[in-house]
Amino acid sequence: MAEQRIVFRGVRIIDPASGRDEITDLAIRGARISALGSDAMTPGAQVVDGVGLVLAPGLVDLHAHLREPGFEHKETVETGTRAAAAGGFTAVAPMANTDPVADNAAVIHEVRDLAVKAGLCDVFPVGAITRGLAGEEMAELGEMVEAGVRMFSDDGHCVPDARVLRNALTYAKAFEDVVLAEHCEDAALAEGGQMHEGLHSYSLGLAGQPREAEEVIVARDLAIARLTGGRLHLCHLSSAGSIEMVRRAKAEGLRVSAEVTPHHLVFTDEDLRTYDTNFKVNPPLRSPEDREALRAALADGTIDAVATDHAPHAVEEKETEFDHAPPGTIGLETALAAILTHLVEPDLLSLSSAIEAMSIRPARILGAGEHGGPIEPGRPANLVVFDPVAEWTVEPPFVSRSRNSAFLGTRLRGRVMYTALRGELVVADGKPQR
Ligand code: NCD
Ligand code: ZN
User: Fold this and answer.
1) What is the CB neighbour count within 10 angstroms for residue 168?
2) What is the edge-to-edge ordering of all strands in the sheet holding 232-234?
3) Which end of the chain, N or C, is surrounded by fewer C-beta atoms within 10 Å?
4) Model-level pTM greater than 0.70?
5) CA atoms within 13 A on the CB side of 338
6) Which of the residues are catalytic?
7) 47: left (phi over 0), alpha (psi -120 to 50) or beta
8) Which residue's alpha carbon is at the smallest distance from atom 12 of ligand 1?
9) Which atom of ligand 1 is nearest to the CA of 280?
10) Of all protein residues, whose CA lies closest to atom 5 belonging to ligand 1?
């Protein structure tokens, strides 16, 4: 078969990795970018009209739940990576809270093989830090590193025992590019909490979970990062106090990075007044002051990355009393548009910083060298092309198997038109092609 050739014509290329922001042509040949600029036009190529569109390095998600193995009624690796591709992602890191837990090389291989077979988006499976996510004994980190794992997390919980975390961070230090990602939540302080503890939880009559449930673990973990010199990543931060601690830790030179979700950047505890279980998420949506702090921290780089925490749940699981509904919102299909609409459009974040936070920095944290740019001839063609002004309403059908979106019914601006994975258009004209 002849190598495929595609040319994006007259497209605005934004590549913060090389500082490029210009309207030009880009050619793909086979799996790679072959040319940029006026010499990009190749006879016999499929020409895509890029006028009005933005082309950037494919998005990279540090935090998604693809649910396979074990919870295929919520999502599978295939449906989840299809949702990722539809959202402009070319790489995604699925969390280890599957059944069986991804705490050994066999499950890691299984998840990666399923993704390769689907061919929609690269996956970088996250390995569990502790066996069975039980928080007691360290999992087979070495075996999983050998299987290619670069990020470990017990997401869903923090590592409750500080000594276990100390040992894991120390052990992980032996591997140059391995990072431990913590879901910062003190189990005792959070117990029973349905939402952020504050005025709204009192008036809604829902049990609250204070921001201190997150902050005490952030404080503890930063102390252990200092003690060990290990590399620590903090998942889905939600509180202004956590941000202050990360800011100080970075100034001090600790090896720490942090992420925030689109839903924590957009919504607050006030949105729970309808008792809509799609707003029940972990950590809970907090106050407007916390949201302001998260937005400012993303803009000034204290928070490195936007991560979706895509957490699909079946309709019957979410359509129940608030107290019984599992926490989580899907997010892969709305992440880019949510950031464009709620941060870039009101000038809280530049377009190029948004791409840094959604592609370049998460690729670096994950060690995903084929992703996150730079956009240059010879580089793998892992790219997203989006219409920055197209408006749409978030509504079913979703590409994801689940529909529990906190953004349901809202209008967003920004629509993914093409996603190229190693040169193949897995999304074209806004639709998945596989
Ligand atoms: C996550 C899930 O559903 O797996 N849910 C969520 O609200 N973030 C697990 C978790 O981190 O609590
Ligand atoms: Zn989590």
Assistant:
1) 23
2) 151-153, 179-182, 232-234, 256-260, 305-306
3) N
4) yes
5) 27
6) 309
7) beta
8) 156
9) 7
10) 328
